Amino acid sequence: MVLYGNPAEEILKFSKLEKIDLIVMGNVGLRGISKIKTLASKSRNVLETSKCYVLIVHQ
Predict the structure, then answer these.
(1) Strand partners, 27
(2) CA atoms within 13 A on the CB side of 12
(3) Do 16 and 49 touch, CB atoms closer than 8 A?
(4) Which helix (H) or strand (E) covers residue 58, if one does?
(5) Engineering a disulfide at 8: which of 13, 15, 45, 57 sits with its beta carbon 3.0 to 4.6 angstroms away?
(6) Exposed, middle or buried, 27 (CB in 10 Å: 0-12/13-18/19+)?
(7) Contact 8, 14 (CB under 8 A)
(8) Half-sphere CA count of 2, side-chain side, radius 13 A
(9) pTM score over 0.70
(10) Which domains does the chain have, with CATH numbers?
(11) How far apart are CA 24 and CA 32, in angstroms?
(12) Does the pLDDT at position 55 exceed 70?
């Protein structure tokens, strides 16, 4: 599926429309506690506003 627009908004809309149980997203960046504070805005937005579970995989 290819969606156009704001990535976080489109992921959230798609997950609601398709009744998704789990969203898996990748994140590259810092390690430890500091990575929680600095999650990319898209990952953080999905994590905080999703109605389903979100798994963020740190690379």
Answers:
(1) 58
(2) 15
(3) no
(4) strand 53-58
(5) 45
(6) middle
(7) no
(8) 0
(9) yes
(10) 7-58 (3.40.50.620)
(11) 19
(12) yes
